[in-house]
Specification:
Layout lengths: L8 H21 L6 H16 L22 E3 L2 E3 L1
Antiparallel strand pairs: 1-2
Length: 82
């Protein structure tokens, strides 16, 4: 059973788009509010979107959330916690 079972295609796409917009807002503001939980959720959403044969705009992740960057160190504001 999928964690997204019962959710509409529209809802799944909107959740992914919301995270993408938050990442973009962080980049424009020079902030680090989006962290590992959002990255993991977006990846799960992207897999579900692909599984359903839907399309979405890819998320341009900041360097601190790229694979291998401090092992996806969690960030809160501007302070990094591990």
């Amino acid at each position: 059973m999928s964690e997204f079972e019962g959710l509409s295609d529209h809802f799944i796409l909107r959740m992914h788009e919301f995270i993408r917009q938050e990442v973009q807002a962080d980049r424009l503001a020079g902030a680090r509010f989006v962290g590992l939980p959002a990255r993991l959720r977006a990846e799960a959403l992207a897999r579900e979107i692909e599984r359903r044969g839907l399309f979405c705009t890819a998320i341009d992740w900041p360097q601190h959330l790229e694979p291998g960057a401090d092992k996806y160190a969690l960030t809160i504001g501007h302070r990094k916690t591990i």
